[in-house]
Amino acid sequence: MSQELIDAVVDMREEDAERIADELLESGADPLSLLEDCRTALGIIGDKFAAGECFVPELILGGEMLRAIGAKVKPRIAASGEGAQKKLGKVVFGTVEGDIHDIAKDIVVFMLDINGFEVIDLGIDVPVNKFVEAVREHKPQVVGLSGFLTLAYDPMKNTVQALVDAGLRDGVKVMIGGGQMDDQVAAYAKADAYGKDAMAAVNLSKGWVGAK
Amino acid sequence: MNLRKAFLDIMKGEDPVKVGWMGYGFAPFPQSMFHVVLDPISFWDILQFSGEAAIDNWGGTIRYLPEKGDPGVIPISNDENKVIKDMEKWRDYVHFPEIPSLDWTEAKKQADAIDRETTFVMVPSFRGLFERAHCLMPFEEVLTSLYEYPDEMDEFFAAYAEWKIKVFEQLIDNLNPDIIHSHDDWGSRTTLFMSPVKFRELLKPHYTKMYEYIHKRGVLVQHHSDTNCMGIETDMVDMGIDMWQGVMPTNDIQQIKKNTGGKVLMIGGIEQTLIDKADATEDVIRGEVRRVIDEYAPGGSFLPCIPSLECINTHVTPIAIDEMNRYGAEWLKKQK
């Protein structure tokens, strides 16, 4: 473990983090341990976010650092024969029908991705049947419904109902999130949970797939 | 009851019981569009554009399809269409449009018809500093640029603030408003988009300058941000915000009153996720309004209002406003 690398990521010192990663790799450090250090750092940033001590930009920047360092270590992991890391699980995600807001969706998709999930991003203004088809095709453990406006409440409810009608609801957990969402809307839409931000979405998904 | 006077007294921190009024935060504003007199600059800069992918005066792409239920103009900025392609060279990409000579006749007529003795003339100014930035580049890039290119972001905000001051100058010269409703969402429902430290570093100085100008011209500042702004409430006082419209109940409203010494009038408080539903009953809507008044009205510096001004489900707004005035009066009686 490199405390120096963890500190650089947590402190948002992007150039230092990449330099330290280069130096560690040059000195023969285990490439997988670098990824673990980045994940540890992201966990610290996530905890600070939950405590109101850091904000969305830090989450994104931390994720970008993990991605940049990931790109450096990937060839070495492949060369060592250890192969790609196994994904934690699969999430189908989209902004529901009638809503074209993508800001919250993109941030959550990014955070799920860098936290080890395979994400099928259906985009914005996603019709109910597209969610149903995607769940049938990709068999995810989690479905994420995003929406910014109050007019997203009913499309969310309709999407969950469509999963029920298609006989797919029991196989997935459904989370909702976005500008005007809360626990009451989750209950209204018959979703399993409301994620108040990107880290909550990651933590919910991890909980549902049994990951730490 | 002179609502204008009552509103100003509450804005100055007077106890609503002493003032003798508690009610809808926009009651003293004659209903025009969004309770404001719409000016030709807002129309030229923002409201004239509609369509799936219209290009505005800045080269930014927007979508506005009211027939599909879009509540307003939505910026669509992505890697393909973004205006600022490289933040370090933002000056090469951002061309500040010159405000043309516009016809103010209709707006002046509307403003002149408003009784200034008992009501207010308020004009809007949309697209604040942060909102303009994310019209010109993708949202995530704005957030990361605050950290990766702070000097360039600061320069951009400074230059845009100068442009906004020219807008304020024309609004005031032509319409002589009592209040400017300045629009910039600084956070989400649960948190600010940036740390208070970043806010103080990159936005506060420029807003202070903008709002100093408005005050210098004898006009009050109503800042709209229907978000959570915990952490910058005392900065709002420093920046010269007289009224914060859009305060969501996810903020600790009582704590903000304490922290600011009641120097910012908060207008909002309603939980829209509870009432802005197709099947929201009258009981639920009225119950939420009563909760808001019971919880936030004591001590003053607060007036109830729907944070986004209008609910998407059109049956909700009139019921909520009716209850704000009806229960507001009942609440006052209970205090005596």
What is the gist of this entry?
The complex is a heterodimer of chains A (212) and B (336). With 212 residues, chain A is of the alpha/beta class.
Q: Could you describe the 3D structure shown?
A:
The complex is a heterodimer of chains A (212) and B (336). Helix content of chain A is 57%, strand content 11%. With 212 residues, chain A is of the alpha/beta class. Chain A has two domains: 3-80, Methyltransferase, Methionine Synthase (B12-binding Domains), Chain A, domain 1; 89-209, Cobalamin-binding domain (Rossmann fold, 3-Layer(aba) Sandwich). In chain A, strands 2-1-3-4-5 form a five-stranded parallel β-sheet, sandwiched between helices. In chain A, helix 8 (183-189) links the parallel strand 4 and strand 5 (193-194). The mean pLDDT of chain A is 89. Chain B has 336 residues and is α/β, with parallel strands linked by helices. Chain B has a domain at 31-37 and 82-269: TIM Barrel (Alpha-Beta Barrel), CATH 3.20.20.210. Chain B is built from 15 helices and nine strands. The longest helix of chain B is centred in the middle third of the chain and has 26 residues, at 150-175. The mean pLDDT of chain B is 95.
